[in-house]
Amino acid sequence: MSENNGINNQVYDDSQIQVLEGLEAVRKRPGMYIGSTSLRGLHHLVYEIVANSVDEALAGRCDDIEVVVNKDNSVTVTDNGSGIPVGIHPKMGIPTVEVVHTILHAGGKFGGGAYTVSGGLHGVGASVVNALSEHMEVEVRREGKVFRQIYEKGKAITGLDIIGESDSTGTRTTFKPDSEIFEDVVFDFDMMIGRYREMAFLNKGIRIRLYDDRGEERVEKNLHYEGGIVSFVQYINKDKEVLHDMPIYIEGFKDSSTCEIAMQYNDRYVENIFSYANNIATTEGGTHLTGFKAAITKVVNDYGKKYNMIKENDKNLMGEDVREGLTAIVSVKLLEPQFEGQTKTKLGNSEVRSLVENVVSEKLTNYMEENPGMARLIMDKCLTASRAREAAKKARELTRRKSVLEYSTLPGKLADCSERDPSVCEIYIVEGDSAGGSAKQGRDRKFQAILPLWGKMLNVEKSRLDKVYENEKLMPVITALGAGIGQDFDLSRLRYDKVIIMADADVDGAHIRTLLLTFFYRYMKPLVESGHVYIAQPPLFKVYKGKEEYYAYSEKEVDKIQKERNWKKEDCDMQRYKGLGEMSAEQLWETTMNPDSRTMLKVEQGDAVAADEVFTILMGDKVEPRKEFIQINAKYVTNLDV
Fold it and tell me: At 224, phi and psi to the nearest 5?
């Protein structure tokens, strides 16, 4: 790949489509193939088709991809690649296009030579999308002609027909997800922009054009980044103060594998390292990430010792010191990636570690030697982080000693539950003592714990770990959950399966929720990634007439209740809850804490880059991005106490 920039000159024809097994049970068990039938699973269908086009780009046969969300919520993906082969498949005896779309594990990515690298490891993409769509239409421009085949729910309902002539090549796929399969079939265009922006960054030179035709006017987004992952790092850091203007760019090759790394330090206290293998986000890391972390730690320590910034008797800098405030993209592309599990979230190829480690060691060392001023800034940042880590360690040890000597290891205000199996326990982190009192009285003591908080806690977006340990508002949360924070966080020690934030439905309550979510995301990220964090949804209104009463979560629901009961506004009463403390223990249990009747929002991390961007904007130092964010999103606010 290093010799020809990924261009693959082998012919892509019918004989290279290899069949492993037939299509079975996709419609019956869709979660096995796309993760879920939620919005995430729905978007995965688009991703599978776009990934096929990107694989054509990686092979040097495509540079333009168009994705259109049509008025009926179908999606059309068009590329200018070589087009799916259209001849009769030598083994299956049907058109190869039909093989690709109706037989599981059929494609050109199983050693036929058509693709040097590919994200479509399992070859299930097109066939699974077809199986989960009520309608699919595929057009192929190839060999001077335009071919078309139509499918319904995974089965071909036409032959492969010639419908015209064309001087160009490529594939156009239109599919409409099956409403019998998915919880919702309405695509989120903003989510699509985030996902395909990432793909455009990872493949410099590729142009991905997105269109949303569902509104009165077409919405367009053109994603094209000649800077590749350097532009990606600059995008992530755009709302942060950076230590050096241009990201450090490193690349290297070995055999058929390549690695690209872009990195830039900012003035924050958390690391943001995103790793990819063949364009797939490896959210659990893997050998490429291990190699990068080991190399950068060694290079910085060696440089510090060489120039006497780290004294002979000093301890080495830890990896977390070296990575504080670091934004980095680690992207590898290889012929036969070995992922752990169908989800492809952790790379296992051992040879990739040595490739990344060697390349980073050599080229980052050269960079620091050639840029001594920049190297000094990086060293100062790392040394300051080391001193803060030592201070945090002392604060942590002091906290532990106090816990043992002075009082129970659990916070004094915590009303714990009696159940000791964490998998069935939940903790409500409640704003204010009065609401905490109602929650303690109204809860089910067997499995529900209550931790009242009062006042606003530390904004950790602007604080190091040592400041977190000194904060009297956050320490009870850390102690109650029992899993530690930062590098010490251990999900297996978590004392509750559900961590539920319960705050007033006003501006102050929203601020407290945001501060807590920022803390969880920055210092207990696995807690969020594993789906343990929830937001309670207390009602905003009680509508009642005589002894008949109902709870509503919006003014729209109030109108619905009045309409269903045939109540005129003047004939019934309504109470607006300004805070949790206004509800009795019985009301709080009935509306917000009873598992059989409550409504909760589960906090999930969809796009990690987008999540980082939102927390940076909302809780960071720069005012202008926050002002712009508020102006754009103000129209979505439905309940705001002034």
Answer: -155, 120
- 463 band by pLDDT with thresholds 50, 70 and 90: confident
State the catalytic residues.
Answer: 431, 504, 506, 508
CA 32 → CA 26, 130, 342, 346, distances in Å? 8, 15, 8, 18
Q: In whole angstroms, what is the distance from residue 408 CA to residue 296 CA?
A: 41
**Fold (topology level) of 229-389:** Ribosomal Protein S5; domain 2 (3.30.230)
Angstrom CA distances, 324 to 251, 486, 528, stand at 22, 12, 21
Among 417, 415, 421, which residue's Cα sits nearest to residue 435?
415
Report the pLDDT value the prediction gives residue 632, as an integer from 0 to 100: 64
Cα 491 to Cα 504: distance, rounded to the nearest angstrom: 28
CA–CA distances in Å: residue 80 to residues 101, 189, 427, 487:
19, 23, 53, 46
Q: What spatial distance separates the first Cα and last Cα of the chain, rounded to whole Å?
A: 60
Residue in the structure block whose two tokens are 């109470």: 575
Give the pairing type, strands 75-79 and 326-333: unpaired
Taking the CA atoms of residue 591, residue 593, residue 594 and residue 600 in that order, the dihedral angle to the nearest 10 degrees is 80
Identify the pLDDT of residue 2: 41
Global pTM reads: 0.74
CATH class for domain 14-224? Answer: alpha beta
- For tokens 């807690």, name the residue: 527
Angle, helix 189-202 to helix 229-236, in steps of 10 degrees: 130
How long a stretch of residues is the chain?
642
Give the H/E segment covering residue 219: strand 219-224
Q: How far apart are CA 350 and CA 359, in angstroms?
A: 15
Residue 70 has which token pair?
A: 């049509």
Coil vs helix vs strand at 569:
helix
Task: Quote the pLDDT of residue 344.
Answer: 61
Q: What is the per-residue pLDDT for 248?
A: 97
CA–CA gap between residue 552 and residue 541 (Å, rounded): 5
What is the spatial distance between Cα 175 and Cα 255, in angstroms, rounded to a whole number? 38
- The CATH number that domain 408-538+600-636 falls under is 3.40.50.670
Question: What is the maximum span of the chain, computed from C-alpha positions, in angstroms?
Answer: 84
Measured N-to-C along each axis, helices 507-523 and 608-619 cross at an angle, to the nearest 10 degrees, of 130
Higher pLDDT, 226 or 106: 226
Domain assignments of the chain as residue spans, ordered by start? 14-224, 229-389, 408-538+600-636
From residue 502, how far is each of 30, 407, 453, 553, 636 by CA, in Å? 34, 27, 10, 15, 22
Summarize pLDDT for 519-531 with one digit per residue, the tens: 999 899 999 989 9
Cα separation, 334 vs 462, in Å, equals: 39
Average pLDDT of the residues in 73-94: 94
Beta strands in 556-603 (DSSP E): 573-576, 600-602
Task: Report the distance separating Cα 311 and Cα 296, nearest Å.
Answer: 19
- The closest of 531, 527, 432, 538 to 480, measured between CA atoms, is 527
Mean pLDDT over residues 568-572, rounded? 85
CA distance 143 to 4: 25
Task: Give yes or no for a contact between 308 and 286, defined as CB atoms under 8 angstroms apart.
Answer: no
